């Protein structure tokens, strides 16, 4: 059967993609970020990951507010990389495994998650800004993607608890898939940041560190927090952290963090973590 071999939490700031595309890996302002992803890329290579399941949010690229689903899964052999105003990126389309994606969709619906399903839609920086830092892409990606979009833009949002349960349901779906695949779960977004209003530029490193600690050892505490508490502690956009809860829910009860890079040099703490299940 398919097996979950670990999880990754990562920021998905759009400027990561712009900096990568413009070759700023050694720029002093960017080097601490890019260096932090090198161990992640090595870990994925060592683990021989076949599939990355991405919990991410769409930034009005695939969907818009006139029809914005709470949860949506992409099913298709490929997905184009969205042009978000910076020009077409020199990345190959994301590869999909239709049989696996369809199995996860059916399993989630039978597990009482009412999903929207999309195909042939572009995927934006919520997924693609960190991806080339972790996975080689020339001439093509080494494996396939299962994109699962979560609404963190238009209220009412799913609760942290609901996102945590979504991750648990995805685990059940993956473990019931008969093909021998090595699967990594990725949760994107956050951490503390706000990009509009009176608190524009707000960050809270203490909250970020607390969140990362609880995510590893006591995610139940985080699942109980209301959206207002995430916003108060981390800024309006830090509610994206509920997508990290989906990643954590797909892992076992006990995990160990094997890598962390935290770089508060931009509008948000650009963070990447790697988790393995504790034996």
UniProtKB/TrEMBL annotation:
CDD domains assigned: Gallate_Doxase_N (cd07950)
Segments forming a coiled coil: none
EC number, as in UniProt: 1.13.11.57
Segments forming domain Extradiol ring-cleavage dioxygenase class III enzyme subunit B: 8-267
UniProt keyword annotation of Oxidoreductase present: yes
GO function terms (MF aspect): gallate dioxygenase activity
Source superkingdom: Bacteria
Pfam families, per the entry: LigB
Key word Oxidoreductase present: yes
Keywords: Dioxygenase, Oxidoreductase
Enzyme class: oxidoreductase
NCBIfam families: PRK13364.1, PRK13365.1, PRK13366.1, PRK13367.1
Name of this protein: Gallate dioxygenase
């Amino acid at each position: 059967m398919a097996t979950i071999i670990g999880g990754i939490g990562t920021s998905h700031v759009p400027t990561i993609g712009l900096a990568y595309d413009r070759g700023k890996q050694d720029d002093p302002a960017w080097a601490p970020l890019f260096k932090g992803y090198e161990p992640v890329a090595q870990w994925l290579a060592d683990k021989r990951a076949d599939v990355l399941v991405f919990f991410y949010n769409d930034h009005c690229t695939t969907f818009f507010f006139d029809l914005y689903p709470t949860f949506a899964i992409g099913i298709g052999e490929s997905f184009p990389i969205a042009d978000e105003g910076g020009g077409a990126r020199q990345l190959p389309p994301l590869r999909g495994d239709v049989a696996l994606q369809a199995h996860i969709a059916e399993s989630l619906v039978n597990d009482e998650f009412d999903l929207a399903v999309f195909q042939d839609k572009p995927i934006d920086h919520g997924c693609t800004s960190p991806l080339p830092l972790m996975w080689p892409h020339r001439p093509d990606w080494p494996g396939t993607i299962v994109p699962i979009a979560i609404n963190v833009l238009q209220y009412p949002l799913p609760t942290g608890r609901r996102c945590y349960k979504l991750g648990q349901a995805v685990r059940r779906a993956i473990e019931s898939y008969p093909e021998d695949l090595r699967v990594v779960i990725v949760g994107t977004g956050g951490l503390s940041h706000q990009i509009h209003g009176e608190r524009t530029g707000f960050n809270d490193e203490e909250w970020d560190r607390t969140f990362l600690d609880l995510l590893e050892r006591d995610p139940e505490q985080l699942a109980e927090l209301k959206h207002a508490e995430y916003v108060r502690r981390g800024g309006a956009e830090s509610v994206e952290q509920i997508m990290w809860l989906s990643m954590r829910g797909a892992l076992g009860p006990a995990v160990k963090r094997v890598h962390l890079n935290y770089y508060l040099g931009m509008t948000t703490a650009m963070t990447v973590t790697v988790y393995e299940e504790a034996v």
